[in-house]
């Protein structure tokens, strides 16, 4: 097992200043106010005995009800970001994030990692999975770290693990600074730039064979064939080079996004001078800010009619299904079919094969196989598998076959306007009733009320008249809730007095502590 990294002492925010006590008070207060709130402290099984010393020494993880709700809808592709410990931030912060239906970052949980080891990362992943009700994602993206890699293999053995290519680019810049910062003369290019060619080799190749050839050529031209760092990257290529990963959903809409830094959720909210106390406050501010951005994107999707660029019924269908951001991506692929004609090259019974290439770029052709009875197609580019958006090549085949609407199997619900409706397929509305007061039921009630409230706000803001109606209904609902709470309080109090019990009742949270 790899030796632990004690990073806590490197942070001036640790110890002193009441940082540990502030974090502990925050966690306890949040759980008291919102029973759905989850937190754990490594090495502390009985949280009632937690103290500031525990928090200052051990790792801490927490996730609120909103994080759990986000994971229900968007937990297919997850990013574990530990890059805040870098020189830029110098913070012991780690975050679990994903992408919502607008391709905006959403939070699935936070952690403070004051010391790192394989067992610590295993503990972190186990508690995160526990907070997410035991559900595993399809994929997880992390920094290139051997301790994290071993922990993922232990806790999430069936989840596809990818290393963040942005962090690999940054580390390559540092390890090969002399090569990256100078122009290297070669026989074919007198001003050959290693960094640019390195990124091209990773982001612009379309086949495994093309990558292998490009990689060997790059190392040969720069006389880096024996470089240990580049050799280690090559050995790990199945975990970070796109052509090896594109058969799995990661949620990136483009290679530019796949190569971008993962720590975008708290950008602008934390920096190297952020203390532990202010970190908690800034986390809450970031969550509020991104929630407001999501609401704005929801309203823009509802209120702004996209401009259609073709007479295709499929484009109109997609405009009504997808969120605005995702529709723009789909629309771009649909328009590209005009320059990417499909030519049938094989017809074996119910399965046919098409060759699709852009005019003038026949050497970059993609092959689409399609079951004509079931209207199921697969493309060699695997864009749908990787991003959940159907590619121009399959759309070109649909165009050739006069398929006018998008088959349901190519509409990924997580990218639609109805991504948060129920738990079923597109458009399914599932609002269950609960009779239990269990923790699981409480979480479900919170999530459902939150989603209904968001839709209420969206509809209520459409006009002054609807706004007034919505506000009146909200005030009436508030009165009814207050009346129901008082009735439950009175009924509970009478029952306890009849049994001769002393009691404490925290109204509004269904959280009762009784002593008889």
TrEMBL record:
Residues 366-402 form the SWIM-type domain. The keyword Protein biosynthesis does not apply. It is found in: Nucleus. Keywords: Metal-binding, Nucleus, Zinc, Zinc-finger. Coiled coil: none annotated. Belongs to the FHY3/FAR1 family. It comes from Coffea arabica (Arabian coffee). This is Protein FAR1-RELATED SEQUENCE. The keyword Zinc-finger applies. SMART domains: ZnF_PMZ. Putative transcription activator involved in regulating light control of development. It comes from the Eukaryota.
């Amino acid at each position: 097992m790899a030796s632990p990294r004690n990073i806590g002492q490197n942070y001036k925010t640790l110890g002193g200043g009441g940082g540990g006590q502030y974090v502990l008070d925050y966690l306890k207060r949040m759980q008291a106010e919102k029973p759905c709130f989850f937190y754990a402290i490594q090495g502390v099984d009985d949280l009632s005995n937690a103290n500031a010393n525990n928090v200052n020494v051990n790792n801490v993880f927490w996730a609120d009800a909103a994080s759990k709700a986000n994971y229900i809808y968007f937990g297919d592709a997850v990013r574990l970001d530990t890059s805040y410990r870098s020189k830029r931030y110098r913070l012991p912060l780690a975050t679990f994030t994903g992408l919502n239906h607008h391709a905006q970052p959403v939070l699935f949980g936070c952690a403070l990692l004051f010391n790192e080891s394989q067992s610590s990362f295993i503990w972190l992943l186990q508690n995160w999975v526990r907070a997410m009700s035991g559900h595993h994602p399809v994929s997880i993206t992390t920094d290139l770290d051997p301790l994290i890699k071993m922990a993922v293999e232990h806790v999430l053995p069936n989840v596809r693990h990818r290393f963040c290519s942005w962090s690999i680019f940054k580390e390559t810049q540092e390890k090969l600074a002399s090569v990256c910062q100078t122009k290297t003369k070669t026989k074919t290019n007198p001003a050959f730039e290693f960094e640019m060619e390195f990124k091209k080799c990773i982001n612009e190749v379309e086949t495994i064979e093309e990558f292998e050839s490009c990689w060997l050529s790059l190392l040969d031209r720069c006389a880096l064939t024996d470089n240990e760092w580049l050799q280690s990257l090559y050995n790990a290529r199945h975990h970070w080079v796109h052509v090896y990963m594109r058969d799995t959903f990661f949620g990136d809409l483009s290679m530019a996004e796949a190569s971008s830094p993962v720590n975008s959720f708290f950008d602008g909210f934390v920096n190297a001078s952020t203390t532990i106390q202010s970190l908690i406050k800034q986390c809450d501010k970031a969550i509020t800010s991104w929630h407001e951005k999501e609401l704005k994107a929801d309203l823009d999707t509802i209120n702004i009619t996209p401009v259609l660029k073709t007479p295709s019924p499929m484009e109109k269908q997609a405009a009504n299904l997808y969120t605005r951001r995702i529709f723009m991506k789909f629309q771009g692929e649909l328009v590209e079919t005009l320059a990417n004609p499909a030519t049938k090259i094989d017809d074996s019974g119910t399965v046919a094969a098409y060759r699709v290439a852009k005019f003038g770029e026949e050497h970059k052709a993609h092959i689409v196989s399609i079951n004509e009875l079931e209207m199921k197609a697969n493309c060699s580019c695997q864009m749908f598998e990787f991003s959940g958006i159907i590619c121009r090549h399959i759309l070109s085949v649909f165009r050739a076959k006069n398929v006018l609407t998008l088959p349901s199997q190519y509409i990924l619900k997580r990218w639609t306007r109805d991504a948060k409706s129920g738990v079923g397929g597109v458009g399914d509305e599932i609002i269950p009733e609960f009779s239990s007061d269990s923790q699981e039921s409480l979480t479900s009630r919170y999530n459902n009320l939150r989603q209904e409230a968001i839709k209420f706000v969206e509809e209520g803001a459409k006009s002054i008249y609807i706004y007034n109606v919505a506000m009146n209904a909200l005030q009436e609902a508030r009165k009814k809730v207050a009346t129901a709470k008082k009735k439950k309080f009175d009924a509970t109090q009478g029952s306890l007095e009849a049994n001769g019990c002393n009691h404490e009742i925290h109204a509004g949270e269904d959280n009762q502590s009784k002593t008889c």
